Amino acid sequence: MSTRQTIHYSVIVPAYKENGNIRPLITRIFTALKQYDSPVPAEQVEVIIVDDNSRDGSVENVQALQHEGYNVRIIVRTTERGLSSAVVRGFQEAVGDNMLCMDADLQHPPEYVPTMLAALSPSATFVLGTRYGKGVEMDKDWPLYRRVISAGARLLALPLTTASDPMSGFFGVRKEAFLKARGLNSQGFKIALDLLIKAKIAPDAIAEVPFSFGVRAEGESKLTGKVMIKYLEQLGELYWYKFSSLLVVLVVFIFVILVLLARSFLGSLEPASQHK
Ligand SMILES: Nc1nc2c(ncn2[C@@H]2O[C@H](COP(=O)(O)OP(=O)(O)O[C@H]3O[C@H](CO)[C@@H](O)[C@H](O)[C@@H]3O)[C@@H](O)[C@H]2O)c(=O)[nH]1
Ligand SMILES: [Mg+2]
């Protein structure tokens, strides 16, 4: 049995009404970790499900998995809701220094968990599962409207980060980098983007792991129009966060130029007034 001291890796799974997906998710994660070539030992990994009071049997399901020896626990929130804040809560509760976030619905392949966790290191403080890497593609069954939304959202984030897929919900971060982030936006869906900017992750500290984004195994997506509006609000906040100091410098620069121009203009008028 693992003790807190031996846990170096924490997998955080935000979940809302995902009972049907929990068992396959947990068993597939640990099966992958128990493979002989897994770069990460299964005994060093805990899984934390952050559930927003789904009351769909998820708690009982997790208890059954615990009895079978899986290192998984479930946090049930009753006063808060939302994907990003659930992820932040999971990161705060995590014992491991290497933390991974993944969806419950099996769209993020559990077989990638060992590679994603192993990609984190003191120099690679952020790992991003990317759907735009070499050799991968969105699942061919992904509806066109989702591809269009995803491409548009990605385009709007281009000025903010060099990461190829900052919209991804499959990502990891080192605890020390997470703790540096101030004022995380816990309203939206895009916690990875928020972290990349607010934890000031340098481009060369981002490891990217290409993966193919599957279709949801069970249940329904929670990506609604409201969530998309929240994303636009989040983008506005991040643009301000990142570029407001640049704006101040620009305004000061323009002001100095105007003062210099005014002085030289007034200077050019001076000899004429002296001849009067
Ligand atoms: N605790 C909690 N979990 C939530 C909530 N809303 C969603 N989740 C969980 O968050 C995960 C993703 O939710 P989905 O509803 O499956 O989202 P999606 O539309 O498939 O979006 C995914 O792909 C996007 C990229 O296109 C990602 O940006 C997004 O983060 C997510 O991974 C699932 O495990 C879901 O149960 C919530 O309010 N509370
Ligand atoms: Mg999904």
Automatic annotation (TrEMBL):
Family annotation (InterPro entries): DPM1-like, Glyco_trans_2-like, Nucleotide-diphossugar_trans
Keyword S-adenosyl-L-methionine: no
Main location per the UniProt record: membrane
GO cellular component, one term: endoplasmic reticulum membrane
Domain Glycosyltransferase 2-like: 10-178
E.C. no: 2.4.1.83
Keyword Transferase annotated: yes
One Pfam family cited in the UniProt record for this chain: Glycos_transf_2
Quaternary context: Component of the dolichol-phosphate mannose (DPM) synthase complex.
Its biological purpose: Transfers mannose from GDP-mannose to dolichol monophosphate to form dolichol phosphate mannose (Dol-P-Man) which is the mannosyl donor in pathways leading to N-glycosylation, glycosyl phosphatidylinositol membrane anchoring, and O-mannosylation of proteins.
Family: Belongs to the glycosyltransferase 2 family.
Protein name per Swiss-Prot or TrEMBL: Dolichol-phosphate mannosyltransferase subunit 1
Species whose genome carries this gene: Antrodiella citrinella
Lineage of source species: Eukaryota, Fungi, Dikarya, Basidiomycota, Agaricomycotina
